[in-house]
Write a structure and sequence with these properties.
Blueprint lengths: L6 H24 L6 H14 L3 E2 L11 E5 L2 E3 L14 E10 L2 E10 L5 H19 L7 H13 L4 E2 L5 E3 L6 E5 L16 E4 L2 E3 L5 E3 L6 E3 L5 E3 L2 E6 L2 E4 L6
Antiparallel strand pairs: 1-4, 2-4, 3-12, 4-5, 6-10, 7-8, 7-9, 9-14, 10-13, 11-12, 14-15
The chain binds magnesium ion.
Magnesium ion (MG) binds next to loops.
């Protein structure tokens, strides 16, 4: 069942969303050449906790970190580690969830570390732009397929691969709710969007090919081709006045 949130519930979700957005932004600003992903995870964890929230991902399905930190060919679900160092030239995808007062906010961004390749720059730009094209379609009366169609069409026009195995989702009292929000689809198809729905739109885009595989750690998803991958995500409320991004940072 798709849950529709009241105005008061949307206000709570905005609070969770801002903490998640700010934790993500603060984490991104903290990235330094040579830092471990464990250190970066601690910074994000501490920010969330200091602001009275709980990291949504910590312990979720047994996940050991507070943020997912996925470098270069890692698509999503990178596990923070003392053995993994971030280096100049890397692209670092950080996915953060914050839970407060009964609701979750979920957001992701791929950060460039220092000077990155032109190919990486283009992948980041196109993936972020595709997120906003998807958000534009998140209006009452539209359908889920309109979002995925907008994301897919744009990314494919650049020759990039749209990951299909992992998708966006409803978000609210649970981190993952109905409906599913794929980054592909047919315009005019799928569930109807109504005001009060809150969804996480999250394109995961590979520089080459859509295929992915999971590393032996059981979590980390990487591109099958070894190409770079980018991930951008916002929690969005569908309102009578159009889509409202709940995870915009205020820092
Ligand atoms: Mg998500």
């Amino acid at each position: 069942m798709i849950s529709v949130k009241s105005k008061a519930e949307l206000e709570k979700m905005r609070r969770a969303g801002i903490i998640a957005g700010n934790a993500l932004h603060f984490g991104g600003q903290s990235i330094r050449d040579g830092m471990t992903t464990f250190e970066l995870d601690r910074i994000i964890h501490d920010y969330i906790v200091k602001n009275g929230a709980k990291p949504s991902f910590l312990g979720y399905g047994g996940f050991p970190g507070s943020a997912c930190i996925s470098i270069n060919e890692q698509v999503i679900h990178g596990i923070p580690s003392k053995k993994v160092r971030i280096r100049e030239g890397d692209i670092v995808s950080i996915d953060v969830g914050a839970y407060i007062d009964g609701f979750h906010g979920d957001t992701a961004f791929t950060f460039p570390v220092g000077k990155i390749s032109d190919e990486a720059k283009k992948l980041l730009k196109v993936t972020e732009e595709s997120l906003y094209l998807g958000i534009e379609q998140a209006t009452a009366g539209n359908r889920i397929g309109d979002i995925g169609h907008a994301v897919e069409e744009y990314c494919v026009s650049y020759g990039f691969g749209v990951v299909k195995k992992y998708i966006g989702h409803g978000v609210g009292r649970a981190l993952h709710e109905s409906p599913e929000v794929p980054n592909y689809g047919k315009a005019g198809h799928g569930s109807r969007l109504v005001a009060g729905m809150t969804i996480a739109i999250e394109p995961m885009i590979n520089a080459s090919g859509e295929d992915v595989r999971v590393l032996p750690n059981g979590w980390t998803v990487v591109t099958r081709s070894g190409s770079l991958s980018a991930h951008f995500e916002h929690t969005v409320a569908i309102t009578p006045d159009g889509p409202v991004i709940l995870t915009k940072p205020t820092l």
